[in-house]
Amino acid sequence: MKYLIKASFEIDGRVEKHDIIGAIFGQTEGLLGSEFNLEELQNKDKIGRVHVDLKYQGTKTTGKIQIPSNLDRVETTILAAMIETVDKVGPYAARIAVETIEDLRAEKLKWIVQRARELLQAVKEQEPDIKEIIRQVTQKAETPVRVIEYGEDRLPAGPDVEKSDTLIVVEGRADVINLMRYGYTNVIALGGAKEKVPNTILNLAKNKKVILFVDGDRGGEMIIRTVLSQMKVDYVARAPKGMEVEQLTGKEIARALAQMVPASEAAKQYNVKELEVTQQPEATEVQAAQAVEQQPQTVEAPTTSAEAQPAVEAAQPTSASAPAKAVQPQPAAETQPTEAPPQVEATAAQQLPQHAQAEAQVSTIVVPRQVLDVIKDLKGTLEAVAYDRSWTEITRVKVKDLYQWMQQLEPNKVYAVIFDGIITQRLLDVASEKGVALLIGARIGSKATSRKGDVVFMTFSDLS
Fold first, then answer.
1. Among 170, 234, 281, 394, which residue has the fewest nearby CB atoms (within 10 Å)?
2. Between vectors from CA 190 to CA 188 and to CA 191, what angle results, nearest 5°?
């Protein structure tokens, strides 16, 4: 259809839809000859079905009429004027007035233009990076350099870590692989977040210019604090905010290294105490290029840092790097009241660098027996249960909606969340922001390594 006739009507009596349509067809028949006979026009698909919306106001009937038209513009206006000649519906006087004649093709054209813009934007976003394509085409066809295991700690490293006068320290094997993909062979990994920098790196870094390259998240900040407090570092570089070193392209790595800052400046920014670094002047792009023999290089900070790893007190003291454990206590002696329900205690101690261990605090979380029973029932349901500080159930949500639900929480309203899912880094971050003290999940994700000291987290198996 090309046009849509819209008209309003008022009738001095109560009538039905078929009465109005019959009056329109009957009173216009033969008025302008057979060419404008509505029944014939409908049979030839020149007009569409007449649509009537009505309502009653006392003894009167009012409403709207819509008639689609496939006639040309002039014929459509004649048809609209002809409808206004209807002055009776049954025994009642009637008044019909055409309000608008809409050009449906114009509405379709607007939609086409809008949709074309959306498709064009999608095509632009898919355009390849020409410089990256050129790099790939012109890159030498040579056997890729293999990652080696260096030193007594067997740390992932590039083959040139010994002979190069510049050393790039990153978090893990994936970061080493990514840097070597773009020609950085003087790189070595910390081997994951640890409380103590491996001796292999401490010995290797002597008489070398050291660049610490970390992720652009909280885990990166933790790595900076840990490493700067334990070894000499000359410069610190970071991946763009929210990105990891293993995700960066060659261009992004070069940009990040060109923006590296002296370690002394980074130490002030992150409040590192007892910093054992040599003061360095402000790094410029030229100095950055000279500092790295092949290309600028980066270090990714693991999302775990020893300073925020929660450890849970068990029958015997656990190591600082052990995952959170909760041990159900054995029944007490006869002097303990038998009616008291068994409790599960989880003690979370934040592991700090040696110079700050004296300030460490210990908190205790008690999990009631009825909550342990809920955990057993949760397995396989993909649901999450939220509790307040008195361990009263607040609500239940689907695990797939848990992150969005936690984002909308009022701060300090929820004390603990137990769910049949994976504890991820973003859940830990939002839990910290919202004042949630405890997360218990089916398992811990591989990226959930940035453990904030104010959030205790563990798995179902830790409570078994």
1. 281
2. 105
* Residue 39 lies inside a defined structural domain of this protein: yes
> Is 119 among the domain residues?
no
Contact between 193 and 305 under an 8 Å Cβ cutoff? The reply is yes
Q: Does residue 87 lie in a domain region?
A: yes
Spatial distance between the Cα atoms of 101 and 84, rounded to a whole number of angstroms: 13
User: Can you give the CATH number for the domain in which 187 is found?
Assistant: 3.40.1360.10
Q: pLDDT tier at 125 (50, 70, 90 boundaries)?
A: low
State the CATH number of the domain containing residue 386.
3.40.140
Q: Is 257 exposed, middle or buried (0-12, 13-18, 19+ CB in 10 A)?
A: buried
Q: How many domains does the chain have?
A: 3
Let me know how long the chain is.
464
Least confident of 60-74, 106-120, 329-343, 401-415: 329-343
Q: With contact defined as beta carbons under 8 Å apart, do 171 and 189 qualify?
A: yes
Residue 449 pLDDT class (50, 70, 90 cuts) = low
My answer on whether 283 and 313 are in the same domain is no
Find out whether 155 and 134 touch, Cβ atoms under 8 Å: no
Distance CA 101, CA 114 (A): 23
> Taking residues 100-115, what's their average pLDDT?
88
Q: How many CB atoms lie within 10 A of CB 389?
A: 11
CB contact set of 460 (below 8 Å; sequence gap of 6+): 375, 379, 440, 441, 442
CA separation, residue 93 to residues 6, 17, 38, 63 (Å) = 20, 15, 22, 15
Task: Please give the model's pTM, rounded to 2 decimal places.
Answer: 0.34
> Which of residues 255 and 293 earns the better pLDDT score?
255
List Cβ neighbours of 239 (8 Å cut-off, separation of 6 or more): 213, 214, 215, 216, 220, 245, 247, 248, 252, 256, 298, 300
Range of the domain at 201: 148-291
Smallest CA-to-CA distance from 414 within 425, 405, 423, 424 is with: 405
pLDDT confidence band for 349 (50 / 70 / 90): very low
The domain spanning residue 34 has which CATH number? 3.30.70.2690
End-to-end Cα separation, the chain, in angstroms: 69
Contact 382, 398 (CB under 8 A): yes
- Let me know whether 264 and 206 are in one domain: yes
Tokens 């302008």 belong to residue: 32
